[in-house]
Specification:
Number of strands of chain B: 0
Order of helices and strands of chain A: HHHHHHHHHHHH
Number of domains of chain B: 2
Radius of gyration of chain A: 19 Å
Largest sheet of chain A: none
Largest sheet of chain B: none
Shape of chain A: globular
Number of domains of chain A: 2
Strand content of chain A: under 5%
Number of helices of chain A: 12
Distance between the termini of chain A: 23 Å
Oligomer: heterodimer
Largest interface: A-B, 105 and 77 residues
Number of strands of chain A: 0
Structural class of chain B: mainly alpha
Distance between the termini of chain B: 54 Å
Number of helices of chain B: 4
Chain lengths: 238, 107
């Protein structure tokens, strides 16, 4: 039973892990190009496990920024994880103790969260460990390969791999949007707002991390207000 | 301050801030949320986050915007027919690569 859940997690984690490979590989190359030692680049991936925050972080290190600047940038860019962790905490099963929570928290990424929230049932720790393992290994491993080997892939292939992670995001959000008008509305609102912030020059000062926070809060609140779902005693997805 | 010390404290700062953002809501707020609005809000958050992170960033995720649009279209179509994550991701890369090859070799 427990082993089956772990394997179930591993299976769901594999596509995430493969998606991370190209991103972390690119991160490794970028870090070394910025003058970060390969070992430091790998250490960052091992201890952070987040793309946007890490890319911002190596930029700050490369420019010799202060520790306060680093802390504030990470707080702003990664604040969305607080929302995800809060949401995830509602879905963990009754045997999810503090130790399990402290370990799981280490690896709450956008993709891990998305797949975990898509599960219809409560989440056991075994499943979450299975889900996290391969993405973590591939994230760190990809960074190591990128940092040490530099550009072994032809430029064109590297470029095409850049879209992989977004393909996964799309595969996660479209199927439920077909069945639930609320999800469709939330996706539409978030995408529209994100475009406004990105393309309208007045909002040029808003970084991508803050933009995600604004879009997420606004669109999810809109969905909760206009498309409330039936809440059962045990909140579970359809 | 030596380079090694600066790097070490920087990385530690990154890691600690990021970890606490993730850990506090997961480990400390352990009560079930009762508010209907809050439960609905949290249900919709992942879809909002993923949509906002994908659009418009996906269009600039490859070197050429037309290639990215092709990859985006492939992903949307296959997702509509409920293909798995990996299938969609690979098809998206393949479509982007194909358009990239066409543009760079024939146009």
């Amino acid at each position: 039973m427990d082993k089956a859940r772990f394997r179930d997690g591993l299976k769901d984690g594999l596509p995430i892990a493969l998606g991370y490979l190209s991103v972390s590989f690119t991160f490794g190359i970028t870090a070394v190009n910025m003058g970060i030692p390969p070992v430091t680049a790998i250490l960052i991936s091992l201890t952070n496990v987040t793309s946007a925050g890490q890319v911002a972080g190596i930029g700050i290190i490369a420019s010799g920024g202060s520790f306060a600047e680093m802390a504030l940038a990470q707080l702003i860019i990664n604040l969305r994880y607080a929302l995800m962790s809060l949401s995830l905490s509602q879905k963990l099963d009754s045997e999810y103790n503090l130790a399990h929570r402290l370990i799981t928290a280490f690896c709450v990424t956008d993709e891990v969260f998305a797949v975990a929230s898509g599960k219809g049932s409560e989440l056991p720790a075994r499943y979450m460990y299975g889900l996290i393992l391969l993405p973590y290994v591939f994230w760190s491993g990809g960074t190591a390969v990128g940092a040490f080997l530099g550009s072994i892939l032809p430029e064109m292939l590297k470029s095409a791999l850049g879209i992989a992670i977004y393909g996964m995001f799309i595969a996660i959000i479209i199927p439920p949007a077909k069945k639930q008008r609320g999800v469709l509305a939330v996706i539409g609102a978030a995408a529209a707002l994100s475009c406004v912030i990105f393309y309208v020059p007045v909002f040029g000062f808003i970084s991508s991390g803050i933009s995600v926070i604004i879009c997420a809060v606004a669109a999810a609140a809109l969905g909760a207000w206009l498309f409330p779902r039936e809440i059962k005693e045990e909140p579970a997805d359809d | 301050m030596t380079d090694t010390l600066y790097l070490t404290i920087s990385v530690a700062t990154m890691a600690l801030v990021t970890y606490f953002i993730r850990m506090l809501p997961l480990a400390v707020f352990r009560k079930r949320i009762k508010s209907k609005f809050m439960l609905n809000f949290l249900y919709y958050v992942p879809y909002a986050v993923l949509a906002a992170m994908t659009i418009p960033a996906v269009f600039y995720s490859t070197e050429l915007v037309p290639a990215a649009i092709a990859g985006f279209a492939a992903a949307v179509i296959l997702s509509y027919f409920e293909r798995g994550l990996l299938t969609v991701a690979i098809a998206s890369c393949a479509a982007a690569l194909a358009v990239q090859l066409i543009i760079q070799n024939f146009l």
